[in-house]
Inverse folding.
DNA sequence: AAATTACCTACAGTGGGTGTAGCTTTATGC
DNA sequence: GCATAAAGCTACACCCACTGTAGGTAATTT
């Protein structure tokens, strides 16, 4: 039986995060000691590992909920899980493309900065005037 | 003189976001009509364009605050702005590296899925067992 | 038995906004 | 000159995915 702290260590999760997952129904309510402390078994360790691994791969908690659900029903078709993964892959590829454009732009900004006064600073100038950009980088966030 | 709505349109910002920027002190308090509506001039349009452009390049609001401050003091050394941009470039490159690892992993997951039952699903299997991963992808988020 | 460590709940805060409710102001058409 | 509709106003709640804190209790170690 694992305490919440040792489960946290084993999975590289913060204790609060585990309690948070419980709160939002992603992790089950575990058993408790007489004194009211949580105790976990193998099943919970596996489930949390799954969640953390999926998070590392960039899946949202919503997607992870779906994946867990599929994982809990081994008879179901695999195609749903596959669709979720494909969706995720697509997102990752979109982000990659955007980040590559950003890198190009930032590199150019940095290279062109001659180190004088801010009035001549290319970094600030480029930020002031989008038309100086060589690449498109429209979307914000994510 | 621009209304908040036309400023929003010109800069591709939501009206609420402009008010939010004002609230957090990133945009100045503009003049008002007798009836209490905000009215903006060229200076505010330029400032908001700067902010939006920097956001598109992935700068945090904190970094943008610093950049605006530098931009307001044309005599200051450019090196600070340069340092902020370099920091940003580094972050972008780190994210790129991670995302590339994720793409590899997701691609592999999707390729190996044969389309049967979830009990045989490679997607779920890979998520269950990190040791099957070919790449490291430790950090979560961003 | 004391001290330390780990745990508990409840709540606030993070970043960067977005959405909503219920009102007032401004612009347009007749 | 007035009705109506569009756009504005404030204030607040909500989003994601956590993280941090305060004030207290349980479990472990010495």
């Amino acid at each position: 039986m694992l305490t919440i702290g040792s489960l946290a260590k084993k999975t590289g999760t913060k204790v609060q995060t585990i309690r948070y997952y419980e709160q939002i129904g992603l992790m089950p309510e575990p058993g408790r000691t007489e004194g009211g402390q949580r105790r976990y078994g193998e099943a919970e360790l596996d489930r949390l590992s799954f969640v953390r691994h999926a998070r590392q791969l960039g899946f949202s908690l919503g997607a992870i909920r779906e994946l867990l659900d599929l994982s809990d029903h081994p008879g179901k078709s695999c195609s749903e899980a596959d669709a979720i993964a494909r969706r995720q892959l697509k997102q990752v590829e979109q982000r990659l493309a955007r980040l590559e454009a950003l890198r190009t732009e930032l590199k150019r900004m940095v290279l062109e900065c001659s180190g004088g006064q801010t009035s001549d600073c290319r970094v600030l100038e480029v930020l002031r005037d989008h038309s100086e950009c060589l690449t498109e980088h429209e979307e914000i966030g994510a």
